[in-house]
Amino acid sequence: MQPFTLPEFYVPYPARLSPHLEQAREHSREWARAMEMIDAPQHGIAIWTEQDLDAHDYALLCAYTHPDATADRLNLITDWYVWVFYFDDHFLELYKRTHDLAGARAYLDRLPAFMPVAGEITEEPSNPVERGLADLWTRTVPARSADWRARFAVSTRNLLDESLWELENINAARLANPIEYVEMRRKVGGAPWSANLVEHAADAEIPARVAATRPLQVLRDTFADAVHLRNDLFSYEREVTEEGELSNGVLVVERFLDIDTQAAADTVNDLLTSRLHQFEHTATTELPAVLDEHAIDPAGRLAALAYVKGLQDWQSGGHEWHLRSSRYMNREATPDALPTGVAGSGSLVPVAGLPGIPGIPSLGTSAIRVIPSLLATAPQRIRSFANVPFRVVGPTSLPEFYLPYTTGQSPHLDSARQESVRWARSMGLLDRVPGIWDEHKLRAADFALCAAGIHPNATANELDLTTGWLTWGTYADDYYPVIFGTSRNLAAAKLCNERLRLFMPVAGPLTEPPVNALERSLADLWERTTRGMEPAAQAAFRRAIEVMIDSWLWELDNQVYNRIPDPIDYLEMRRATFGSDLTMGLSRLARGDSVPAEVFRTRPLRALQNAAADFACLLNDVFSYQKEIQFEGEIHNAVLVVENFLDCDRGRAVEVVNALMTARVRQFEHVVDSELPDLFDRLGLDGEARTAIDSYARELQNWMAGVLRWHQGTHRYEEAELRYHPSADRRPFGSPTGLGTSAADVRRLASR
C-alpha cells in the first residue's frame, strides 16, 4: 500500500509527445550500452540492467518534455537524462549506501575535467559517468555560446557537487529545514540544469543581457522547485522507505510541521501549485517589462518566449512521465493511455498565463485535466489577491524565541543617539515635507540601540556611521510607499532608484547635486563610508545597496496587484529588502584580504549568512505584524504569507514562523560546529583565514543578538507609537504609512 494518496496536481498545460519517441528509445539504449551503463558492474555492483533502463523509459520523459525537438536533438537530450539518472543511481550505490564521504569527494573532484567551458578534454574517462559526460559535453557545447556554456557548466557542477550535501546529511542523520531544503534541492535536484537543456532543445538561448535578471531567475527557480516538489511526491516511497533518503520535501514538511504523511503530501502539492502560479505571474508581468527595459530585439524576445514555453512543456511532460515510469510511486494513479499523436496536430489551447504566445496542441485526453486542475486550485490563487488592508488585528502575542547568543553594548550609545538626531535634521530627514518622520519618530525608533548591539566594540565614529546607515535605510523604506505606493507611480520609483545610483560613484567624485533629503543623506553616508576604499570594494558595496533599493520596487509592484507573495519568493526577496547583500559585502570588506573571495562563495558561508538573515527578517515580521497589517495595509509580512498559504489563523502562523526562525538558528549552529571546520580542512586555509572566518561567525552572532535586543527595546512597534504620525493633520489614522516594517530596518551595516 502506498504511504499516501497522490494529490490532485495543478497541470495547466496539456502534455504533448514527440513523434521521434521510438528512435530516441533505440538510440539511448545503444548509447547507454556503449558507455557501459547497463549490464556492466561497477566495483562489483550492477547499477542498471537493460530491463531497468527500458522500465525507467527516459526517452518517454524527453519525448514528453521536449515535444518540438528535432530527432537528433531529442537523441542528445535523452542521452543527457540517461546520464544524469545513471549518475544519481551510481552515486547512491557506491557512496550513499556505503557512507563513503572521502571516496565521493575524490569521485566528484574528477568530473569538472570532463566539462571544460573552453578548450579540449584532456583527462581519460575511467568509469561510465566520466565517459558519458565527456561524450555528451563534446556533442553539445560546440553549438552553444560562451555564455550558455558557462551557465550550463555551473548548473552541472552544482548538480554533481551538492550530492555531497545529501551524503553528509545521511551520515549525520540530519534532516534539512524547509528553507535550506528548497535552496539545496535546486542545486542537487538538477532542474536548473534541465532549464539549460530547454534552451538547447529549442535552439533558443536567453539573451545574455537578461539572463541574470530577477524575472529570468524566478522563472528558472519556480520551474526547478515545481519539478523537484513533484518528483518528491512521486518518489517518496522509493527514497524514504526503500533507500533511507532524507532529501525529500514530503519528509521535510512532515517532520517540520509535525503532521501525518498525507497532510504533508497535500502541503507540498500546495507549494508546488504556488510555485507554478508564481511562474505564470512572473511570465506575464515581469518578463515583458525586463525585455523592454533592456531593449531586447525581436529575435531575443522570441527566444525568451520559446524558453518560457519550453519550461511549460517540461512541467506537463514531466508530470505525464511520472505517472508512467516504473521508477516512481504511481500504482494508484490512472494515467491516460499513452498518446501516439504527433506534436503540431490537434486543436489549439491557449497557454495558461501567457497571452500572446501561440496555443499548443492537445493530445489524447491530457488536456481534459486542465479545466479540473484550474478549478481545484482557484481558491488558492484567489486567496492570494484577496487581502483586506487595514483590518484591525491588535497586538501579536510574542512567542519565546530561540537564540543562544548574547552581545555587548557600545559605551558610545548615548552619544550616538544624540548624533543621529543632529545628523538626520541636518540632512532634512525630519522636514515637515514630505513628512515621513519627525524627531519624535526617530527617537522612538532608536536605531543607535541596534547599532550598539550589533557593533558592541565600535568606536564612536564607527557607531555613528552604522547608526546613520540604519537611519537612512529605514527612512528610505518608509519613504517609497508614502511617495510612490499611494499614487502607484512605479515609474517615479524607478527614476528615484536611478537617481540614487548617482550618489554612489565608484572611483570618482559626485557629478550631480542632491535635490532632496533622501539623496543628500545617501551622498553623505557614501562619501564617509567609501573614503579610502579600493574601486573594486566600492563597486561591491554599491551593488549591495542596489540590490536593496531595487527589491523595494518588487514590493511596490505586489502592492499594486494586492498580491500576497508566494512563500518561497517572499523569503528570498525578504533578504534583499532587509539589506542582506549589503551586510555580506561589508563583512567581506572588513575581512580584507585574509579570506579569499571564493571562500565567501562556498555553500557553508552562504548558508551561514542566509540563516542569520532569515532569523532577523522573520523576527522583524513577528514584531511588526500589527504595524504592517493594521496600520499600513501591508502584504509583505511572513506571518501573513503563512496565514495565506496554510489558510490558518495568526496564532498558528506565528508558531510556524517561529519554528522557521528556530530551524535557521540551529542550522547556523550546525554550520559553525560541523561545516566550517570541514571547510577549513578541505580548502587548506591558513591560520589567519580561519581566525577571520571564526571572527565573522561571531559577528553574525552579535548581529542576531543585537537585532533581537533592538526589537525588544524599540518603541517602533508599540500601538501607542503606531497611532502617532508626524503628519497626522494630513493623513488620518489607518491610512498607508509604509510598505514594510522598514524592510531595511536593522541590517544595513552589521559588519562595519
How would you characterize this protein structure?
The chain has 752 residues and is an all-alpha fold. The chain folds into two domains: 20-323, Farnesyl Diphosphate Synthase, CATH 1.10.600; 411-723, Orthogonal Bundle (Farnesyl Diphosphate Synthase). The chain is 63% helix and 1% strand. The chain has 30 helices and two strands. It has helices at residues 21-34, 50-56, 58-65, 71-96, 101-110, 128-140, 146-161, 163-171, 178-189, 191-202, 214-242, 249-257, 261-293, 298-322, 370-384, 413-427, 439-445, 447-454, 460-485, 490-501, 517-530, 535-561, 567-577, 580-591, 603-623, 625-631, 638-646, 650-683, 687-713, 719-722; strands spanning 348-349, 360-361. The protein has a two-stranded antiparallel sheet with strand order 1-2. This is Terpene synthase. It comes from Frankia torreyi.
Annotate the secondary structure layout.
Layout: H1 21-34, H2 50-56, H3 58-65, H4 71-96, H5 101-110, H6 128-140, H7 146-161, H8 163-171, H9 178-189, H10 191-202, H11 214-242, H12 249-257, H13 261-293, H14 298-322, E1 348-349, E2 360-361, H15 370-384, H16 413-427, H17 439-445, H18 447-454, H19 460-485, H20 490-501, H21 517-530, H22 535-561, H23 567-577, H24 580-591, H25 603-623, H26 625-631, H27 638-646, H28 650-683, H29 687-713, H30 719-722
Antiparallel strand pairs: 1-2
Helix pairs in contact: 1-3, 1-4, 3-4, 3-14, 4-6, 7-9, 7-10, 9-11, 10-11, 10-14, 11-13, 11-14, 12-13, 16-18, 16-19, 18-19, 18-29, 19-21, 19-22, 20-22, 22-23, 22-24, 25-28, 25-29, 27-28
